[in-house]
DNA sequence: CGATTTTGACCCGCGC
DNA sequence: GCGCGGGTCAAAATCG
C-alpha cells in the first residue's frame, strides 16, 4: 500500500535474503526451489497481514484525530461568544484595538489545537486560544530560513530572552503599522505535539487563511525540521503581497541558536492592506497568487522527509475558497487517504519506530505461530 | 538618510 | 506586597 509496507518488507526480508542467499550458496543443493519459494511466500503473506493491520491502525488514528478535532471545535464554539465580549484583547493601554470585536464574533474557528494546558488560565489567552489553529510544517534541515511566507512585511520591535528557552522571543509588528494593528510574536510551542510530530516525522498542516489575526511558529528543541505555526484570529484585509510584488516580503523568521527547528510566531491584530507581494499581483488576471500554503494534498516531499511549505501568500478570493473548503477537504476520503499514506511513509523513516514495530509484529507472529 | 534591528528599561498582570 | 514573566517602548546601532 505505501512506504510502510515496503519498509517493513525491507526490514524483515532483507536480512533473510542475505541469509538465504548464503544458504543458497552453501546449502543450495539441500533446499529445493519449491521450499525456498514457499517460505518466501509465507513470509510475504505474514508481512502483508501485518501491513493490513497497521493500515487499519493508522486509519483509526486519523479518524480519532478528526473526531477529537471536531469535538474541540464544538467546545470552542460553545465557549467563544461571551469571552469575546468580556475580555479585552490586549492588556496594555494604547494597544487596545478592540474595535474589531464584530469580526471576532464572526470568526469561524478553524481551531485545530488549543490543547495548551494554559489555554483557560487567563481571559486574554482564552480569546486567543479560541481561535488558535496550528500548522505543523516539516522543513528541510538545510533550510534555516524559517520563512513562513505569509506575504506580509514585519518589523521587529522587541525581543525577550526566556530563562527556560535558549531561543529568544521576538515581537513583530506589521510594517504598515500604525494603520495596521497586526502583531506577531514567537512563543513556546506545545512541546508534546512537537515531540510527537518529531517522533512520527509527520507533517500535518492546517489551513490558515488571511482572516486569522495571529500566527505562531516555533521550531522544536531537537535538531529536527518540524515547524509549528499557530494561527490565531483573523486579518481584516488582504496581505500586502497582493498589493505589490515584493520579493522576500515574509519576515516571520526566527533562527534558533543551535539549529533548533520549531518556531512559534503569534499574530495579533488585523491587516487592513494587502501584502506587498500581492498588491501588484491583484491587477493581474490571476487572483490566486502564491497559493502554496494548502499543500496538504500535494505536499512537496523533499529528500530529508515529507515537507510542506507554508506559504500564506494568497489572495482573498483564494482565502475565502480555502476557508470554505478546508474542512470538507480535511474530511474528504482523498485527504484521509493522503494523511494515512503520508503518516505511514513518515513513520517508516523513523528507525526507532520501524524497529519497535517490527519487533512487535514479529513477537506477535511468533506468539501466534507457537500456539 | 530612512528603515530596520538591537537592547535595556519600563509597565502590567499574575501567583505566592 | 513582592517577585517574576510577558509585552512594549524608545534610544542607539546597523543596514541598504
Automatic annotation (TrEMBL):
<protein>
    <submittedName>
        <fullName>Metal transporter Nramp6-like</fullName>
    </submittedName>
</protein>
<feature type="region of interest" description="Disordered">
    <location>
        <begin position="1"/>
        <end position="21"/>
    </location>
</feature>
<dbReference type="InterPro" id="IPR044810">
    <property type="entry name" value="WRKY_plant"/>
</dbReference>
<keyword id="KW-0539">Nucleus</keyword>
<keyword id="KW-0238">DNA-binding</keyword>
<feature type="region of interest" description="Disordered">
    <location>
        <begin position="79"/>
        <end position="122"/>
    </location>
</feature>
<dbReference type="InterPro" id="IPR003657">
    <property type="entry name" value="WRKY_dom"/>
</dbReference>
<dbReference type="InterPro" id="IPR036576">
    <property type="entry name" value="WRKY_dom_sf"/>
</dbReference>
<dbReference type="GO" id="GO:0043565">
    <property type="term" value="F:sequence-specific DNA binding"/>
</dbReference>
<keyword id="KW-0804">Transcription</keyword>
<feature type="domain" description="WRKY">
    <location>
        <begin position="143"/>
        <end position="240"/>
    </location>
</feature>
<dbReference type="GO" id="GO:0005634">
    <property type="term" value="C:nucleus"/>
</dbReference>
<dbReference type="Pfam" id="PF03106">
    <property type="entry name" value="WRKY"/>
</dbReference>
<dbReference type="GO" id="GO:0003700">
    <property type="term" value="F:DNA-binding transcription factor activity"/>
</dbReference>
<keyword id="KW-0805">Transcription regulation</keyword>
Amino acid at each position: 500500500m505505501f512506504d510502510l509496507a515496503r519498509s517493513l518488507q525491507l526490514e524483515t526480508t532483507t536480512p533473510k535474503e542475505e541469509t538465504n542467499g548464503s544458504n543458497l550458496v552453501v546449502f543450495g543443493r539441500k533446499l529445493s526451489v519449491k521450499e525456498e519459494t514457499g517460505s518466501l511466500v509465507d513470509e510475504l503473506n505474514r508481512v502483508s497481514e501485518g501491513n493490513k493491520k497497521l493500515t487499519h491502525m493508522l486509519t483509526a488514528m486519523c479518524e480519532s484525530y478528526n473526531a477529537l478535532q471536531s469535538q474541540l471545535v464544538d467546545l470552542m464554539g460553545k465557549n467563544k461568544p461571551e469571552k469575546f465580549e468580556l475580555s479585552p484583547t490586549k492588556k496594555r493601554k494604547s494597544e487596545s484595538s478592540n474595535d474589531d470585536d464584530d469580526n471576532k464574533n464572526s470568526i469561524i474557528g478553524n481551531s485545530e489545537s488549543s490543547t495548551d494546558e494554559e489555554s483557560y488560565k487567563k481571559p486574554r489567552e482564552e480569546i486567543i486560544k479560541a481561535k488558535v489553529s496550528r500548522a505543523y510544517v516539516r522543513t528541510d534541515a538545510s533550510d534555516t530560513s524559517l520563512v513562513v511566507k505569509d506575504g506580509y512585511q514585519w518589523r521587529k520591535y522587541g525581543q525577550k530572552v526566556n530563562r527556560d528557552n535558549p531561543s529568544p522571543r521576538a515581537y513583530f509588528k506589521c510594517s504598515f503599522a500604525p494603520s495596521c494593528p497586526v502583531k506577531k510574536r514567537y512563543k513556546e510551542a506545545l512541546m508534546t505535539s512537537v515531540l510527537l510530530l518529531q517522533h512520527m516525522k509527520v507533517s500535518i498542516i492546517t489551513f490558515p487563511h488571511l482572516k486569522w489575526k495571529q500566527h505562531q511558529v516555533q521550531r522544536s528543541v531537537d535538531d529536527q525540521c518540524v515547524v509549528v505555526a499557530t494561527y490565531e484570529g483573523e486579518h481584516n484585509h488582504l496581505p500586502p503581497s497582493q498589493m505589490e510584488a515584493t520579493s522576500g516580503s515574509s519576515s516571520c523568521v526566527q533562527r534558533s541558536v543551535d539549529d533548533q527547528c520549531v518556531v512559534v510566531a503569534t499574530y495579533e491584530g488585523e491587516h487592513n492592506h494587502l501584502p506587498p507581494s500581492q498588491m501588484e499581483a491583484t491587477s493581474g488576471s490571476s487572483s490566486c497568487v502564491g497559493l502554496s500554503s494548502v499543500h496538504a494534498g500535494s505536499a512537496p516531499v523533499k529528500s530529508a522527509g515529507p515537507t510542506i511549505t507554508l506559504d500564506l501568500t494568497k489572495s482573498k478570493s483564494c482565502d475565502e475558497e480555502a476557508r470554505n473548503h478546508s474542512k470538507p477537504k480535511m474530511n474528504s476520503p482523498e485527504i484521509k487517504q493522503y494523511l494515512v499514506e503520508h503518516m505511514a511513509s513518515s513513520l517508516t523513516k523513523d528507525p526507532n519506530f520501524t524497529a519497535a514495530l517490527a519487533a512487535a509484529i514479529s513477537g506477535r507472529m511468533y506468539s501466534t505461530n507457537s500456539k
